[in-house]
């Protein structure tokens, strides 16, 4: 039986006028303090773009998406893989991503295509901000990434480390996730990457366990909760499942709100129309930020007076809630929209 120690609890805080505000508890983890979730760039929405499709890539200039993932994996047919590497190389040299994070998703390690993808990525004149690796199954896969990157990565400056985000897409991967994350954290200290996040690959996960994907995704509830607990225990981001029906924006919003309540920090998207809905849902509202700033201000005043816990808007406030408020403020300061 797997045991998880630093669990991220959720609390409901009552507002005046009978309203309620949900705050995700501040993540407490074994990860290095300099690699905390509050210091990692926001990835409220990560948008997949087929790496060979120049037309779709060009449209990124019109979007304000947090993270654009140029894809070599699922979004690219087998006979387009080489073309995708070529196009992504050219895009890396010429395209202005602005404030959007430039990420590349390579093929899975077991596919036999990953090393060629990685060689291509690490020979760009401009490196991507982030490397995304699907279907991580074991600590050996993390060691493979470190070894191959050390072999092909020309830059040895620690400040030029690539961010690493990897995908959990099977029962084995989920059950072994704590050991996999521990390995990624350890290798981040000496390797060419900085482990920053996890992505839950719901459709592959369903296929692996023989589940049938439903609209409300109840068959994935336990897996998603476990996934979030492990991610937050290591202070890395937890990116939620794709909402496949990209035309169903009300359903997308409902899924986002559920994910945010569970502790997810962002969501995968497959169409530009999903971006504004997702990014708004995973952003602190003006009301939340105002609550947090006022709480921090009053907490500091009470500390100067030598007082401990106090009542604020009908709720008893102590140090744990202060940490939650500080997290909300930090995240709001990183967001442009």
From TrEMBL:
<dbReference type="GO" id="GO:0047777">
    <property type="term" value="F:(S)-citramalyl-CoA lyase activity"/>
</dbReference>
<feature type="binding site">
    <location>
        <position position="204"/>
    </location>
    <ligand>
        <name>Mg(2+)</name>
    </ligand>
</feature>
<dbReference type="GO" id="GO:0106064">
    <property type="term" value="P:regulation of cobalamin metabolic process"/>
</dbReference>
<keyword id="KW-0378">Hydrolase</keyword>
<keyword id="KW-0456">Lyase</keyword>
<dbReference type="InterPro" id="IPR005000">
    <property type="entry name" value="Aldolase/citrate-lyase_domain"/>
</dbReference>
<feature type="binding site">
    <location>
        <position position="105"/>
    </location>
    <ligand>
        <name>substrate</name>
    </ligand>
</feature>
<feature type="binding site">
    <location>
        <position position="169"/>
    </location>
    <ligand>
        <name>Mg(2+)</name>
    </ligand>
</feature>
<dbReference type="InterPro" id="IPR040442">
    <property type="entry name" value="Pyrv_kinase-like_dom_sf"/>
</dbReference>
<dbReference type="Pfam" id="PF03328">
    <property type="entry name" value="HpcH_HpaI"/>
</dbReference>
<keyword id="KW-0460">Magnesium</keyword>
<dbReference type="GO" id="GO:0004474">
    <property type="term" value="F:malate synthase activity"/>
</dbReference>
<dbReference type="GO" id="GO:0005739">
    <property type="term" value="C:mitochondrion"/>
</dbReference>
<comment type="similarity">
    <text>Belongs to the HpcH/HpaI aldolase family. Citrate lyase beta subunit-like subfamily.</text>
</comment>
<keyword id="KW-0809">Transit peptide</keyword>
<feature type="binding site">
    <location>
        <position position="169"/>
    </location>
    <ligand>
        <name>substrate</name>
    </ligand>
</feature>
<dbReference type="GO" id="GO:0046872">
    <property type="term" value="F:metal ion binding"/>
</dbReference>
<keyword id="KW-0007">Acetylation</keyword>
<dbReference type="InterPro" id="IPR040186">
    <property type="entry name" value="Citramalyl-CoA_lyase"/>
</dbReference>
<comment type="function">
    <text>Mitochondrial citramalyl-CoA lyase indirectly involved in the vitamin B12 metabolism. Converts citramalyl-CoA into acetyl-CoA and pyruvate in the C5-dicarboxylate catabolism pathway. The C5-dicarboxylate catabolism pathway is required to detoxify itaconate, a vitamin B12-poisoning metabolite. Also acts as a malate synthase in vitro, converting glyoxylate and acetyl-CoA to malate. Also displays malyl-CoA thioesterase activity. Also acts as a beta-methylmalate synthase in vitro, by mediating conversion of glyoxylate and propionyl-CoA to beta-methylmalate.</text>
</comment>
<feature type="domain" description="HpcH/HpaI aldolase/citrate lyase">
    <location>
        <begin position="44"/>
        <end position="272"/>
    </location>
</feature>
<comment type="subunit">
    <text>Homotrimer.</text>
</comment>
<keyword id="KW-0808">Transferase</keyword>
<keyword id="KW-0479">Metal-binding</keyword>
<dbReference type="InterPro" id="IPR015813">
    <property type="entry name" value="Pyrv/PenolPyrv_kinase-like_dom"/>
</dbReference>
<dbReference type="InterPro" id="IPR011206">
    <property type="entry name" value="Citrate_lyase_beta/mcl1/mcl2"/>
</dbReference>
<dbReference type="GO" id="GO:0016787">
    <property type="term" value="F:hydrolase activity"/>
</dbReference>
<keyword id="KW-0496">Mitochondrion</keyword>
<protein>
    <recommendedName>
        <fullName>Citramalyl-CoA lyase, mitochondrial</fullName>
        <ecNumber>2.3.3.9</ecNumber>
        <ecNumber>3.1.2.30</ecNumber>
        <ecNumber>4.1.3.25</ecNumber>
    </recommendedName>
</protein>
């Amino acid at each position: 039986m797997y045991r998880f120690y630093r669990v991220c609890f959720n609390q409901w805080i009552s507002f005046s006028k009978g309203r309620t505000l949900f705050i995700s508890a501040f993540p407490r983890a074994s990860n290095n303090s300099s690699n905390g979730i509050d210091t990692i760039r926001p990835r409220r929405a990560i948008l997949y773009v087929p790496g060979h499709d120049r037309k779709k890539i060009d449209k990124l200039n019109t979007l304000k998406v947090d993270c654009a993932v140029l894809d070599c994996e699922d979004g690219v047919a087998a006979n387009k893989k080489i073309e995708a590497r070529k196009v992504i190389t050219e895009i890396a040299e010429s395209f202005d991503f602005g404030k959007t994070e430039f990420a590349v998703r390579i093929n899975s390690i077991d596919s036999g295509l990953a090393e060629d993808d990685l060689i291509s990525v690490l020979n760009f004149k401009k490196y991507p901000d982030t490397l995304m690796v699907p279907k991580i199954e074991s600590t050996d896969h993390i060691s493979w990434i470190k070894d191959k990157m050390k072999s092909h990565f020309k830059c040895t400056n620690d400040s030029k480390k690539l961010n690493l985000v990897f995908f959990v897409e099977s029962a084995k991967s989920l059950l072994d996730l704590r050991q996999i994350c521990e390995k990624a954290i350890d290798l981040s200290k000496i390797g060419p990457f900085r482990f920053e996040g996890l992505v839950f690959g719901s459709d592959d996960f369903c296929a692996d366990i023989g589940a049938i994907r439903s609209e409300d995704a109840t068959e994935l509830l336990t897996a998603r909760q476990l996934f979030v607990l492990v991610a937050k225990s290591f202070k890395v981001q937890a990116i939620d499942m794709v909402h496949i029906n990209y035309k169903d924006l009300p359903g997308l919003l409902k899924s986002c709100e559920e994910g945010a309540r569970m502790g997810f920090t962002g969501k995968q998207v497959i169409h530009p129309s999903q971006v504004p809905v997702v990014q708004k849902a995973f952003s602190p509202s003006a009301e939340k930020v105002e609550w947090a700033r006022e709480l921090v201000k009053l907490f500091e005043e009470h500390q100067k007076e030598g007082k401990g816990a106090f009542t604020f808007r009908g709720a008893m406030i102590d140090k744990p809630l202060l940490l939650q408020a500080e997290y909300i403020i930090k995240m709001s300061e990183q967001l442009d929209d």
